[in-house]
């Protein structure tokens, strides 16, 4: 029988872990003192030596004097139940922590989205709004005057011309696509900004698309700044080009007067010799007049091409031929106090470059060289082939490859290392105020970079400067001028075609008419657009209209031709002008069967152009 009045028991010492014994003894002592039952759960050594849990319960038996005579009790193994309780408690704690963490995370995401200055919203598969931030509500109200609400069908809130566009964007996202688009949205009477909108699908736990997100950003200011920057760059490019053209104007009047004196003088002498019957000198005077006329035409064409606004148009270019062709123009620009040498390089490779911009760069380099030699000096232009290996490419900051190097060297004042370090910066100039924009070398640098090449400067104070343009080599042939000098028969009329010639200058009209009649055409003349249009609206056979662009009579040449095509839809037209072709076309293009010929032109050029237009028209008629 166990001791009924003492807390001492061998089973406690044997089966109960030491750290649990005090609590068990205290409970037994309490039951003895109060003569009541006890019940507690405690750890216990199991038969396999491990520690488990037991539930011990006992009830005292009392005699007539109220003394405890014995205890009735039992111990139950509750190890599995305790393990389950612990696991459940741990899971509850873990879930609680996860819920708290997720709640904090969602609150953080919400704070981030709400604090975003960019509109953000989410929509379901029916295009209904299911969430949006404050920025989205504010921006939509700004551009449409409406406060969005949860559940609204988002595309239906847009004007009829914008709703299908928005619905199409949202539909793409609901198909699982993530993408970004740029589009203008808004009420024109309030605001219609340009938006950069990004979409990404919203998926459930199984990966199914249940909606999508819409992130918008107003990029109107950015696009406006980009447009203004592009316009400014174009204005700067044109301003710098016009500055160079301005350098030419001082000597142009003198040069043209010399050329005109040569032409008019030769013609007067021809007239005199013909009257005297001395025909042997006529050919010499004729050659002199033709030579002066060709030089004047070449100068005019070069100036027109030089001043024309255009983006880069890389073409296979014979750099050596281009430089030699500019020699006379450069010499006029730099003046007689500067000796100019263009070293011929017949073996130079062709380059892939915009020839007009290269002319601009070369002329500006020579003008800079002139300014560095106020007391006179020498400019040398050289073209050489260069193969750039890896070490040289790293040193010059350019790709490895084959290049054509155009180098302009002067014997001027030179530049210090500090000036060389800044010389390509826009608006940086060492010239006095009012004598330079500081754009020349920066424009040349941009041109070289845009062309896939590079520009480098070598200079020492007091020893001169050498500027080298590296231009990428073109591996194929270069369309060149016909240098054979062979005379080919002029294309003649094959069917006695009739050509209407409209020009307000009687001399030009007479020359064109004589050329046409010599080639077998029937020519009709008109002195202005009104007279020309009257002929074109008559029943007279007209196979081709040859007209000057600038005409009196209420219409220019192109307008007259287009008016004539109302009754003669297949009328073939050759427009003649003294301006650059882009000045005629503007931002448009010529209609089919219409071509342009720039004055002055040779008889061969005009005859070939007339024949080609007539034959092209017949070919179109055969196809129809």
Topology readout:
Blueprint: H1 10-15, H2 21-34, E1 38-45, E2 51-62, E3 68-77, H3 79-115, E4 120-124, E5 129-132, H4 134-144, H5 163-174, E6 179-184, E7 194-203, E8 209-218, H6 220-276, H7 282-307, E9 315-317, H8 319-325, H9 327-334, E10 338-342, E11 351-353, H10 355-371, E12 377-388, H11 390-396, E13 401-410, H12 417-422, H13 440-450, E14 454-460, E15 464-472, E16 498-502, H14 506-518, E17 522-526, H15 529-536, E18 544-548, H16 557-564, E19 573-577, H17 581-585, E20 594-598, H18 603-623
Parallel strand pairs: 10-12, 16-17, 16-18, 18-19, 19-20
Antiparallel strand pairs: 1-2, 2-3, 4-5, 4-8, 6-7, 7-8, 9-11, 12-13, 13-15, 14-15
Helix pairs in contact: 6-7, 9-10, 10-13, 15-16
Number of helices: 18
Looking at how many chains there are and whether they match, the oligomeric state comes to single chain
- What is the mean pLDDT? 80
Q: Please report the total strand number as a whole number.
A: 20
Helix residue percentage: 40-55%
Spans of 5+ residues with little confidence (pLDDT < 50)? 1-8, 432-439, 481-487
Distance between the termini: 129 Å
Strand ordering within the main sheet = 5-4-8-7-6
């Amino acid at each position: 029988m166990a001791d009924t009045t003492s807390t001492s028991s061998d089973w406690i010492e044997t089966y109960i872990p030491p750290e649990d014994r005090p609590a068990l003894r205290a409970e037994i002592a309490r039951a003895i003192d109060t003569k009541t039952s006890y019940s507690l759960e405690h750890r216990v050594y199991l038969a396999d030596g491990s520690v488990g849990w037991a539930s011990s319960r006992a009830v005292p038996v009392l005699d007539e004097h109220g003394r405890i005579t014995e205890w009735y009790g039992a111990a139950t193994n509750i190890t599995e139940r305790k393990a389950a309780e612990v696991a459940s408690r741990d899971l509850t704690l873990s879930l609680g922590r996860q819920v708290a963490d997720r709640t904090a995370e969602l609150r953080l995401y919400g704070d981030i989205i709400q604090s975003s200055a960019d509109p953000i919203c989410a929509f379901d598969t029916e295009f209904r709004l299911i969430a949006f931030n404050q920025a989205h509500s504010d921006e939509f109200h700004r551009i449409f005057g409406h406060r969005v609400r949860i559940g609204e069908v988002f595309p239906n809130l847009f004007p009829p011309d914008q709703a299908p566009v928005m619905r199409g964007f949202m539909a793409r996202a609901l198909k699982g696509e993530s993408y970004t688009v740029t589009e203008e949205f808004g009420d024109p009477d309030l605001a219609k900004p340009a938006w950069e909108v990004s979409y990404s699908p919203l998926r459930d736990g199984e990966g199914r698309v249940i909606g999508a997100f819409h992130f918008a950003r107003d990029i109107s200011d950015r696009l406006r700044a980009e447009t203004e920057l592009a316009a400014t760059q174009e204005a700067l490019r044109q301003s710098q080009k016009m500055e160079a053209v301005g350098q030419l104007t001082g000597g142009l009047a003198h040069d043209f007067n010399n050329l005109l004196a040569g032409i008019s003088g030769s013609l007067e002498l021809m007239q005199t010799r013909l009257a005297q019957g001395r025909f042997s000198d006529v050919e010499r005077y004729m050659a002199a007049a033709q030579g002066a006329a060709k030089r004047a035409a070449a100068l005019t064409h070069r100036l027109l091409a030089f001043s024309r606004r255009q983006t880069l148009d890389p073409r296979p270019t014979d750099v050596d031929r281009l430089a030699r062709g500019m020699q006379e123009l450069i010499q006029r620009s730099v003046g007689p106090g500067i000796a100019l040498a263009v070293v011929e390089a017949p073996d130079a490779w062709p380059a892939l470059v915009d020839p007009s911009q290269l002319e601009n760069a070369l002329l500006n380099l020579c003008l800079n060289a002139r300014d560095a030699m106020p007391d006179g000096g020498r400019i040398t232009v050289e073209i050489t082939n260069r193969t750039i290996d890896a070490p040289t490419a790293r040193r010059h900051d350019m790709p490895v490859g084959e290049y054509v190097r155009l180098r302009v060297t002067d014997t001027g004042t030179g530049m210090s290392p500090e000036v060389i370090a800044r010389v390509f910066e826009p608006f940086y100039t060492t010239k006095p105020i009012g004598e330079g924009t500081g754009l020349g070398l920066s424009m040349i640098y941009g041109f070289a970079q845009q062309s896939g090449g590079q520009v480098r400067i070598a200079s020492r104070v007091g020893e001169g400067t050498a500027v080298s343009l590296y231009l990428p080599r073109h591996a194929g042939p270069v369309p060149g001028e016909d240098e054979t000098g062979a005379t080919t028969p002029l294309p003649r009329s094959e069917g006695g075609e009739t050509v209407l010639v409209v020009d307000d200058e009687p001399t030009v009209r007479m020359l064109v008419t004589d050329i046409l009649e010599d080639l077998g055409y029937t020519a009709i003349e008109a002195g202005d657009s009104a007279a020309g249009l009257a002929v074109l609206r008559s029943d007279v056979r007209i196979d081709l209209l040859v007209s000057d662009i600038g005409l009196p009579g209420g219409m220019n040449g192109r307008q007259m031709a287009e008016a004539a095509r109302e009754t003669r839809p297949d009328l073939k037209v050759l427009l003649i002008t003294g301006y650059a072709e882009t000045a005629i076309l503007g931002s448009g293009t010529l209609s089919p069967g219409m071509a342009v010929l720039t004055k002055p032109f040779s008889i061969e050029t005009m005859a070939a152009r007339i024949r080609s237009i007539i034959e092209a028209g017949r070919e179109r008629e055969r196809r129809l």
